[in-house]
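Suppose a colleague, Dr. K., hands you the sequence of a protein chain of 71 amino acids and asks what its three-dimensional shape might be. Before reaching for any lab equipment, you can write down a predicted structure in token form. Begin with the sequence itself:
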Amino acid sequence: MRGDDEAEKASLLLCLDYYLDPYYGCTLAHESEIFALLQELLLSERSQAIRDDILQLLGDYCGDFSVLRSR
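The predicted structure, expressed as tokens, is then:
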């Protein structure tokens, strides 16, 4: 997700929303790493729309904000 294609990033974040939402019963083997990557991306992303999507995912599903706290 380090490219410049905003539509691609938004699409990937929408898919992550499905897989992270406990309502659908999906389990991701590396969920904590995904949250860490999302926090890293939040710090480097230039698009406000993508940053908003990342913040929503983190706010809805993440309980560990250690990457953001360390910065």
